Amino acid sequence: MAKHLERERIAAAEESSVEKVTRDGSLVSAIVSRLTSVFDRHAASLVCKLWNESVTWETHSLSVRSRSLLPLLLRRFSHSNFLNFHLCLDQLRDEDLLTAASALPHLHTLIIGHQELPQEELTDEGFSGFVKSYTRLRHVALCCVANLRDSGIRELSRHCRDLTALSLSSCRNLTDDALDALSNCKSLKELTLKGVFQFTPSGLARVGENCRGLVAVGLEFETLDISLALKSLAINCQELETLTLKFSHGDLGELSRCRSLVRLHIEADNSNDADIPITNIAAANRKMKEFSYVNSLAPLGDSAAVTIMHNCPDLERLCFHSGGRSLSVLAQSGIRLKEINVIFGWGIRDVMIHGQGNWDIELEALIRSNQQLEKINLQCALRPSVRTFSGIALCSNLRHLDLSFTGVDSGSLAVIADSATALQHLSLVKCEGVSDMKVLSNFKALEYLNLDQCPFVNDEGLDFLSVGCSKLTDLSLAFTRITDIGLVYLAECGRLRTLKIPYCRGVQGHGLVTIAKCCSWLRYLVISHRFQGSEALAELKKQYCMVRLHVDDLALVPFGFYALDVAAR
């Protein structure tokens, strides 16, 4: 007996840590709960059945890419509380929602629709029946649900009294009555309305009257005048902290009545001078931490930008058109920014031509005085010096960098890569000063990369990229010389989710199919319209990839493109 116990003791001592983890279900569950990345969880699910089950139970978000997979997914993830049809390739039907209603008792978040694929078979009655089953829904986002009507929103507001966030995008049959129905949503804190509806300016103004507890609002309309809506929000929503606007018609003056704004993001498309309204808004909201104003037709003046800096000392994120003087003031202001987005346009070029200032010196000083920056956008900056790029290299916390249309070269990128080891987002659109792609492989943490119109992009470079940037999830290569050979190299990027390659005449299709089969995470592709009806497109859809066909200059050119070149010779 003693010998038997001794053998068991020795065997237990020799058991490896991996074996203990594999055997102990509670320990496995604790480990899995600490995994925040979907890629890490996927890897853990492949260890064994025990780990797979643990990952399943720790997964509460269910994304459906095909309605044919819905019954199987609902059985396995019946504990999910987040249902996402955003990237579903099929037309949803009422019975799909009814099936989900009976299978997901803990659901609190629902997302339906995508701007590239409108949902045209889902009816208003089906949606109404669904929300009656889920009185605990708290977050709802509906995009391009063509048959959704006011009655559906009315049922949502009537039964889901705990609704805190609602996003509606281009649900074209909704009218002002849908906005009136929101008065029942006493808990509503976040509201986003964008795209095409049947709203009127006066109806939109009732949002502030009906939802006085709003904390975050987003409005995006091309033709609708939002002046009355802004006035209503300013007067009635005393807790409003975040306001995001994209519009062509509207008066910002009434927003100066707000006193609670912390984040203000404006993208306008009109010729209205906004300097006075913006400075008044800044004076009334001195605790503002994020401010952006983009209007190519009437940029914010330097004096207004300077006033904002003086009035809002707590600014962390700033986006504006610069004329040079504001950069100098910002560099000397003592404001400690985490993000700066300086938009350079024709105005800067005029200043340079007339010799009225050297903005590159101010830009360098600004970056060097804000080395804690996490995001820098210098898109279209004219000939920033090597000293400016070396200043960027001092920002060790950098996560997002946009140097599109600048003169950055390979040497400067190498210096930045050595310091900004955590950089995740890099945009180099039409950067002709870079000589090759090897330097890009030094950005090991890169997740997003935009190399549109870059002459140095080639198949060999994609081989280096796939090896060095293994965490890449989003890649754009429009107007480049890549071929299917290079795309096959990209198949090594197992985490790739989005790939955009319109205007690439060398891509014939089999490389796309290879990527789709090898990269199980690939969800969204933008390719030339010439692939319409091709075998490659059919195969991509079999792999549950959402494909956007871009009407480019090759849309009417047959696949024997190079044969045409030879014939021309």
Automatic annotation (TrEMBL):
- Quote the cellular component terms of the Gene Ontology held in the record: SCF ubiquitin ligase complex
The protein's superkingdom reads Eukaryota
Biological process annotations from GO? SCF-dependent proteasomal ubiquitin-dependent protein catabolic process
Q: Which InterPro entries match?
A: FBXL15_LRR, Leu-rich_rpt, Leu-rich_rpt_Cys-con_subtyp, LRR_dom_sf
Start and end of every F-box/LRR-repeat protein 15-like leucin rich repeat domain? 393-515
Q: Name one Pfam family in it.
A: DUF7885
Protein known as? F-box/LRR-repeat protein 15-like leucin rich repeat domain-containing protein
